[in-house]
Amino acid sequence: MLLGLNQNIEYRGELYHIQTEDGGRKNPVITTLVFKDGTIVASRRTGYADILKFERLDSVVKELMREQHRALIKALLSGELDERLKPVEAAAGKREKPAFQKEESIDDIILEHLSLDDK
Fold it and tell me: N or C: which end of the chain has fewer CB within 10 A?
């Protein structure tokens, strides 16, 4: 499992967090999430089970992670994600911020997001 990539990007006066993680050999999936105020607004997953036997697997996966991370940043900055951002922005305007927020692991966040995709 490789170290992830994390980056804060300002877009149209709002701050977004882009996070890319490697699931490792037991879960060969690269997951990139775009967060706005703690809510996942976009995601991209790429499996790599088909290349697990490559000699230089770590360097190949690292490059795949970088490419996917950059692709979601580009999608955000080009306006490609704007339709996905509207419901999050509207909901943020309606709800109050809680006095405290429960800390969740990235695994919990990803599992919650994946369960929403199934609905």
Answer: C
Percent of the chain residues topping a pLDDT of 70: 71
Give me the residue spans of the domains in the chain. Answer: 5-95
**95 pLDDT above the threshold of 60:** no
Distance CA 106, CA 119 (A): 21
Cα–Cα distances in angstroms (integers) from residue 58 to residues 11, 55, 70, in the given order: 32, 9, 18
How far is residue 10's CA from residue 22's CA, in Å, rounded to a whole number?
24
DSSP-assigned states of every residue in 45-97: EEE-GGGTT-TTHHHHHHHHHHHHHHHHHHHHHTTTTHHHHHHHHHHHHHSPP
Alpha carbons 7 and 37: distance in angstroms, whole number:
14
Listing DSSP states for 16-56 in one string gives EEEEEEE--TTS-EEEEEEEETTEEEEEEEEE-GGGTT-TT
